[in-house]
Amino acid sequence: VLKEGRWVAIDVDIMGRRCSLVNIYAPNTDSPEFFYNLHAVIQSMGNTDIIIGGDFNQVRHNTLDRSGNMGRSRNIQKSQIAIDTISEELGLVDVWRLMHPQEREYTFFSQSPYIIF
């Protein structure tokens, strides 16, 4: 299933268990509707075993996942709330955060609070 090049999902059999593998490339704007639409698709697949990876273009925790004052001054975006809600409803876990609960590491860093194209 492919939607605007933003996600792909497949069902696979892993050692006798049916599992949904989902890869996403989320918009780099605050787009909660993207995550809610994805949630509906994942639910329609009917699996309880779900692995989601990709680029969420979003942080989960402002104070841990943003550097310096950015973490304290940034309001929580609607996409963050959508991700938290969906994660809770589907029983998803951020594996990296589970293994490193207080670590501050970044896959992207910019001095500017804005992304300039």
From TrEMBL:
InterPro entries linked to this entry: Endo/exonu/phosph_ase_sf (IPR036691)
The name this protein goes by in its record: Endonuclease/exonuclease/phosphatase domain-containing protein
Organism (species): Sparus aurata
